């Protein structure tokens, strides 16, 4: 019986998803047969504004900054193309006009769209310019290769290159860069193509491009229009990955059979804790959400200046929905404005003038309702920015107030969707849950409409408990880590996304003042939970969070204003063994870390992680994404990996910045379900928030995304387990080493593993306060020192797990001389 119901619900959900994708406007307008009390009437003002999911194109990062600053949430599914940036936006007609006014090109409605094929740069025509600009090698320092990566997917090879020129900021004329590659070791350079200049917030970042290639090059050559030229070797990206855990025929996987709403996620989490008490338990987060609930409302009396917006004092489900309001036109003249209340029925007897005409303004009626409704109405005001000077009309009968949560979507759980504040359970899995093992926090669905991240996280939890006794690798994970799953961190918004308005992103808290508090705005209320944190926040002037309560990226009235974000801080403070975190979002095919926010003026980012952390992030990312690829060849491209503000843009007040900078937690942000390569068309095909669950398994499919990204989560656990077991001290070297040189010499440090070096050149003992060895520039290898005089370097290195080279400890007499030293002697 129960089983049958579940199946029906799942089928229905797929149908819902389909309709969202095709119709694109699951507006909250009251559907037929779902209105409240009989005899009520509805003002057209109460229809929630229709939204469309549209494909848009921006000319570049500068325009992206402006659009984001205007409060649009575009962070998901952005894709750079040679002529700009493409993406999708969820917008009302009003917002669409605003976008167009900003110069954004609207490409059409989005329906699991196909990215234009720019893999070969579309720039074959520029080959004529070829390599004539090549200059002697003494210009080499003006051009540097940042990265050159080769990867294959579904039989097709790709080369991704980032290169930087010291003249990149120059805009008149703009510096152009040409890329050439060979066709394997010892072959000639050729195939010149122009690279795209990447400018963000007015600052030159680097040039970059993704090119389709049939053979793996050994080297590339980059030439700038100002005369610089350099060569670089090509590295592999996610090639030759070890087989995933799922390759073992005895390994159990594929547990999640469809999208799950919060009640299903939470009850399964509780069931897992009951079924596997030896390795699992539930922790209930202390702050209840503000609730899947609303005040009951109506907009009555006319339009514009004559409209009155009425909100109940009680929540809709706690009596607000039982209230009716009637504006009554009595016979007679010279009558005062009066309010009568009988039970939950409010009658406003409108004033009449000497001639017997209606004479109450919207402002007067609103004020009367607030003060004379015997507490039933606690908020009544004119519509939007109107002063309420218009005379209100009588209603044709009582108008029932409603919270607009009465539309039971097909697929709703048995009974009603629970109203009111929710308690969020954390599913904790680990053999030793006493703080001895590194903790990993998996936090899914901060954004309500992102259904795949919740399914992915549940799949990972199921794999842990089902394989614990039968699979050695899983046993190692469970024995050596302490995992905390928040399967949905936004249950109120998620319920709204499942049952009312599929495109909901934020939570359900309405912080809007009167001018945006009418029910027509209800699909725009809420706080963007991933803008509500304290480090690099919009409240501190960082870019990418909005102060507008109706914006998709509304940051909230203050930092940590929302219970959902307070809970995360509570959790990592109480369980201080949490050293890793993955904030799981969709859809973009990206893996991010710090820096993730900047102050736009001057593009000042949050502090750049030390080189050791950065290298550890890259190493971990490559492990995680290799396991994603192992499922169906999905490649998250290197241009979508790194500090999020280095490769995409600023998101102020995101959770990752807070956890990394406040608590030293390695905090990743993941956009699952990005575009995948379609060999049949030769194009990359974009993902979506709620792809059909089965869909096309090789291309767009919630099921496939869930399985492949669950592979990646399992690998993140292995990264954490290895980190916890890492007692190996790093080693490092100055290259070339100390010795006698006949002239100036360039030296740099190398480490045996991701590690940060602290060094001195002034004869003092190095400490953690000494200068840190940094990257040449972000996303580049370590800096090069040009040594012109005899210099002694003193240094030590520290790895990502905190192991110090040679056990050096400046405060311990027996270890205070264990630092490294090398003298470069320059003889003239
Ligand atoms: Zn998101």
Structural account:
Helices cover 21% and strands 26% of the residues. By secondary structure, the chain is of the alpha+beta class. The relative contact order is 0.11. The model is unreliable at 1-39 and 111-140 (pLDDT under 50). The protein binds zinc ion.
List the keywords.
five-stranded mixed sheet; disordered N terminus; globular; 13 helices; binds zinc ion; 21% helix; eight-stranded mixed sheet; 39 strands; 828 residues; alpha+beta
Helix content: 10-25%
Based on CA inertia axes, which overall geometry fits? globular
Largest sheet geometry: 8 strands, mixed
Strand order of the largest sheet: 14-22-24-23-25-30-26-29
Radius of gyration: 30 Å
Relative strand content: 25-35%
Give the helix/strand class: alpha+beta
Number of helices: 13
The chain-level mean pLDDT equals 88
The molecules bound to the chains, other than polymers, are: zinc ion
SSE map:
Layout: H1 2-23, E1 51-58, H2 61-69, E2 79-81, E3 84-92, H3 93-101, E4 105-109, E5 143-153, E6 156-165, E7 177-181, E8 190-194, E9 196-200, E10 203-213, E11 219-224, E12 229-233, E13 235-236, H4 262-275, E14 280-284, E15 295-300, E16 308-315, E17 324-328, E18 338-342, E19 345-349, H5 362-372, E20 377-382, E21 399-400, E22 425-429, E23 439-444, H6 451-467, H7 472-480, E24 482-486, H8 491-499, H9 563-574, E25 578-586, E26 590-593, E27 598-599, E28 604-605, H10 611-632, E29 641-643, H11 644-647, H12 655-663, E30 666-672, E31 676-678, E32 683-685, H13 702-725, E33 732-735, E34 739-741, E35 745-751, E36 755-760, E37 785-787, E38 791-799, E39 820-826
Parallel strand pairs: 5-13, 17-19, 23-24, 23-25, 25-30, 26-29, 34-39
Antiparallel strand pairs: 1-3, 1-4, 2-3, 5-6, 6-10, 7-8, 7-11, 9-10, 11-12, 14-22, 15-16, 16-20, 17-21, 18-19, 22-24, 26-30, 27-28, 31-32, 33-35, 35-37, 36-38, 38-39
Helix pairs in contact: 6-7, 6-13, 10-13
The structure holds zinc ion.
Zinc ion is lined by residues 76, 446-447, 450, 585.
